[in-house]
Specification:
Layout (H helix, E strand, L loop, with lengths): L5 E13 L2 E7 L14 E6 L3 E6 L10 E6 L7 H8 L5 E5 L14 E6 L4 H13 L3 E7 L8 H8 L3 E5 L8 H5 L6 E5 L2 H14 L6 E4 L14 E5 L5 E4 L5 H7 L18 E9 L13 E2 L5 E8 L2
The structure holds FE2/S2 (inorganic) cluster (FES).
FE2/S2 (inorganic) cluster (FES) binds next to loops.
Length: about 325
C-alpha cells in the first residue's frame, strides 16, 4: 500500500486554546484548498528526529482552506507535544499527511451523543460543527478538570449553545454516564478522552443493554497488558498461499515488510489505524484500540495484533 501524500504546510496561526493546549491552524503555502476530510479524521504529523504523531482535526470540515489541530503538552509523553510546543510559531512549516478517518460520524438524522474528556474533545468538536450544519439532534458532554485546561470551550459554547453540557470536576460536577445515557437507547454515542471516561461509557452501554454497534470510541493511548506473552504464529497470504512464520519477538507488520509486503504504517502501537488489513480466517488476538467489535471480525492491525496458530490474511 502506498504512503499517503505528505504536504509541507505552514502554521498560519498558533495560539493557546487552554493553558496547556497549543492550537495550530495549518495552511498550504500556495494552494487555497487542502484535501477534504470528514468529522472524526486525524492527520499524521511528521516531526524531525521524533517521528510521526497523530492529531485529530478539530475545526469545521466545511472549512477547506486550513486544518486546525490542538496539541496538549504531555510532559510524560514520547516527545511530540513538547517538540511542537517548543518549536512552532506562526510561519513555521510542518510535514503533514492527508487526513485519515477511523472515527467517522454516521450519516443520518438520528440522535447523537458526544462525550469528550480533555484533549479528547477535539474530534468531537469537528462532529459538533457537522451536526450543527446538518441541524442534527445532539448533545455534547464536555468533561474537564477546570475551565483553564478545557480546550475550545468558548468556541463550543458559542457553536452548540444549550446542547453543550460542561462537567468540571473542580466545581464538583462530574459526568455520570449511567444517568446521562439512561434515556439515550436510540442514540449513536461517540466517546473520546481519558481511558477511565471511555471505559465508564463502555461499561454503562454494556450494562444497560444498549446496542453495542451504536457506541463509537477513539482512544489515544496503546493497550497496556503487562501479562501478555506473545507467541509465534503463522500468517498465510490468501492470494498466493504463501506461509510466513511470525516469531514471538517480531510483529506481523515487520514480517510482512521483510517479505516484500509493505503496508502503510505510522504509530506502530495500535492507535492510528494506518496498517489496517483484512483477514479471512483465524483466531486473531486483537491488541489495537482502533477497530470496533464488528470490524474485528474481518480486520486487524498487524503492528500489534497476533493470532493463535495461524491467520489467513486478505493479501
Ligand atoms: S501503524 Fe498505527 S495502528 Fe498499526
Amino acid at each position: 500500500m502506498a504512503d499517503r501524500m505528505i504536504m509541507k504546510l505552514k502554521v498560519a496561526e498558533a495560539r493557546y486554546a487552554a493553558s496547556n493546549v497549543l492550537l495550530l491552524r495549518l495552511v498550504h503555502p500556495r494552494r487555497p484548498r487542502l484535501p477534504a476530510w470528514d468529522a472524526g479524521a486525524h492527520v499524521d504529523v511528521h516531526l524531525p528526529q521524533i517521528g510521526v504523531r497523530q492529531y485529530s482535526l478539530c475545526g469545521d470540515p466545511a472549512e477547506t482552506g486550513s486544518y486546525l489541530i490542538a496539541v496538549k503538552l504531555d510532559p510524560e509523553g514520547r516527545g511530540g507535544s513538547h517538540w511542537l510546543h517548543s518549536n512552532l510559531a506562526e510561519g513555521s512549516e510542518l510535514h503533514v499527511a492527508a487526513p485519515r478517518n477511523h472515527f467517522p460520524l454516521a450519516e443520518g438524522d438520528g440522535r447523537v451523543v458526544l462525550i469528550g474528556g480533555g484533549i479528547g474533545i477535539t474530534p468531537l468538536a469537528a462532529m459538533a460543527h457537522t451536526l450543527v450544519a446538518r441541524k442534527g439532534d445532539f448533545v455534547f458532554h464536555y468533561c474537564a478538570p477546570d475551565e483553564a485546561t478545557a480546550p475550545l470551550l468558548a468556541e463550543l459554547r458559542e457553536l452548540c449553545g444549550e446542547r453543550l453540557r460542561v462537567w468540571l470536576s473542580s466545581q464538583g460536577t462530574r459526568f455520570d454516564s449511567t444517568a446521562s445515557l439512561a434515556d439515550e437507547t436510540a442514540a449513536e454515542i461517540y466517546a473520546c478522552g481519558p481511558e477511565r471516561l471511555t471505559a465508564a461509557v463502555v461499561a454503562t452501554i454494556l450494562a444497560a443493554g444498549h446496542a453495542e454497534e451504536r457506541l463509537h470510541t477513539e482512544r489515544f493511548t496503546a493497550l497496556t497488558e503487562a501479562d501478555f506473552q506473545p507467541q509465534a504464529f503463522e500468517a498465510v497470504l490468501a492470494s498466493s498461499s504463501r506461509q510466513l512464520a511470525v516469531p514471538a519477538d517480531r510483529t506481523l507488520l515487520d514480517v510482512l515488510e521483510e517479505s516484500g509486503i509493505v503496508l502503510e504504517s505510522s504509530c506502530k502501537i495500535g492507535v492510528c489505524g494506518a496498517c489496517e488489513c483484512g483477514y479471512l480466517a483465524g483466531d486473531v488476538i486483537h491488541r489495537d484500540v482502533v477497530l470496533s467489535p464488528g470490524q474485528r471480525k474481518r480486520r486487524l492491525m498487524p503492528c500489534v495484533s497476533r493470532a493463535r496458530g495461524h491467520v489467513t490474511l486478505d493479501l
